[in-house]
Amino acid sequence: MVEDSVGRWRSLGVRAGDRVLLCLPTSWDFIEAWLGLICLGAHPAAIANAAGGLGASSNFADRLGKYCAVIGAERIVIGDRMAQDLRDQHAEGVGRMVLTPDEVSSQEIGDRTLVESKWDDLAFLQFTSGSTGMPRAVKIEHGMAIHNSYAINEGIGRRFGAPVTEVAE
Predict the structure, then answer these.
(1) What's the CA gap between 159 and 153, in Å, rounded?
(2) What is the pLDDT of residues 99-153, one digit of tens each?
(3) What contacts 16, CB < 8 A, 6 or more positions away?
(4) How far is Cα 143 from Cα 129, in angstroms, rounded to an integer?
(5) What is the distance of C-alpha 90 from the center of its chain?
(6) What is the rounded CA–CA span in Å between residue 19 and residue 125?
(7) CB atoms closer than 10 angstroms to residue 130
(8) C-alpha span between 29 and 48 (Å, rounded)
(9) Which pLDDT score is estimated for 52?
(10) Regarding predicted confidence, which is higher, 166 or 3?
(11) φ, ψ of residue 45 in degrees (nearest 5)
(12) Are strands 137-141 and 19-23 parallel, antiparallel or unpaired?
């Protein structure tokens, strides 16, 4: 329930306007964190999961620090194994910013009030590919995200609001 997620983020001290970096696989944990942050009025940004292997934690910690600096994030949500590595090896840096999905979901549920947003309010941040340097964060407004959903719906030939089984011919 998205209201519970909002309440958990508030219990963690996250407020409207805060920026949180999500580094999770496509999963229910990701969706719950993403939607909870948006409905709180915070601004999530997502990056790909880290590849494992020797030395990966150190290199990835540097990348995480750069991504956090770009968006001004003070929290990172990441999987258990990488979270522990970051805490153990980078306690003074990104390790202090790390939360796991289980740590978020185990929080006491605080104020569950959803933030009302306007079309031109910032919804989330989306990183560019970074093919020519460090990825930049593009500001995506609520209206832009909603318009994109409508466009995708139209592009696949499905009438908006129609049951999933009904596809335009």
Answers:
(1) 7
(2) 999 999 999 999 999 999 999 999 999 999 888 888 999 999 999 998 988 888 7
(3) 40, 41, 42, 115
(4) 23
(5) 22
(6) 9
(7) 10
(8) 14
(9) 57
(10) 3
(11) -140, 140
(12) unpaired
Inter-residue contact 45 to 125 (CB < 8 Å): yes
Q: Which long-range contacts (CB under 8 A, 24 or more apart) does 22-27 make?
A: 22/46, 22/47, 22/76, 22/77, 23/47, 23/48, 23/49, 23/50, 23/64, 23/76, 23/77, 23/78, 23/79, 23/82, 24/49, 24/77, 24/78, 24/79, 24/101, 25/49, 25/79
- pLDDT digit string, tens, across residues 38-74: 999 999 999 987 655 545 567 888 889 999 999 999 9
Which pLDDT score is estimated for 4?
95
Distance between CA 78 and CA 94 in Å, rounded?
A: 11
pTM: 0.86
Q: Given this model, what pLDDT does residue 101 score? A: 96
* Total number of residues shown for the chain: 169
DSSP 24: -
Tokens of 105: 């979901």
SS (H, E, C) 143-162: HHHHHHHHHHHHHCCCCCCC
CA-CA-CA-CA torsion for 3, 8, 12, 13, nearest 10 degrees?
Answer: 20
